[in-house]
Amino acid sequence: MTKVPGSFKAVATIAPVREAAAALEDFFMDLYEAVQTTWSNQPRHRTVVYDNNGFSLLITAMGDTIPWEFVQQLALNGWTFAARGFTDLFDVMYANANGNIMVSVSLRLLDHALPGSEPGTGSGESSQTGWAGGADGSGDWREGSVPSVGSGADANNMNWGGTR
Questions:
Q1: Is residue 30 within 8 Å of 53, Cβ to Cβ?
Q2: Whether 102 contacts 64, CB under 8 Å
Q3: How many Å apart are CA 92 and CA 86, to the nearest integer?
Q4: pLDDT value of residue 74
Q5: H/E element holding 12?
Q6: DSSP E strands: which ranges in 14-134?
Q7: Helix H or strand E encompassing 10
């Protein structure tokens, strides 16, 4: 999948950069390991919420379910950017070459990670993952609005490289 031109929007930059970058490196490496060890053995979903280390990543697919290979590459790219000192919270869209699968990605801080928040009030104080919506689109706000497309061939024919 490639980034949709003009779709990257930095929502905020986290400072101090050194500490934020280290935390984001851990976040994205944990995500990579979760996909590699657990998620890839489970059915794909239209929506994935990953809360860990004070961050929340929301990934939503339009057109089909989220390919695990995409999430794995996203994690590696996120780790690479964090290692280079990029500490933006962001929204971005990706699409496969045909444009029949689009994936929205949003990175945010969990509520308890914000200055002045009470510890324990965020949904992901400890490392956790969760699914919102099912592989059949149940719980998806746009349920039935986009026809499903084949999943296996589409995943194998995508350009997984992404740039900021």
A1: yes
A2: no
A3: 15
A4: 96
A5: strand 9-13
A6: 47-52, 55-62, 88-95, 102-109, 128-131
A7: strand 9-13
With H, G, I as helix, E, B as strand and everything else as coil, classify residue 47. Answer: strand
Q: Whole-angstrom Cα distance, residue 159 to residue 101? A: 12
User: What pairs with residue 12 in β-bridges?
Assistant: 89
Amino acid at 57: L
What the block records as the tokens of 130 is 């969760």
Backbone angles phi, psi at 35, to 5 degrees: -65, -45
CB contact at 8 A, 93 and 7: yes
Instruction: Determine the Cα–Cα distance for residues 42 and 38; give it in Å rounded to an integer.
Output: 7
Could you give the CA distance from residue 65 to residue 50 in angstroms, rounded to a whole number?
Answer: 16
Percent of the chain with pLDDT over 70: 68
Note whether 1 and 158 are within 8 A (CB). Answer: yes
pTM for the full model?
A: 0.68
Cis peptide bond prior to 119, omega within 30° of 0: no
Half-sphere exposure of 77 (CA within 13 A, CB side): 15
11-20, 24-33, 66-75, 104-113: lowest mean pLDDT where? Answer: 104-113
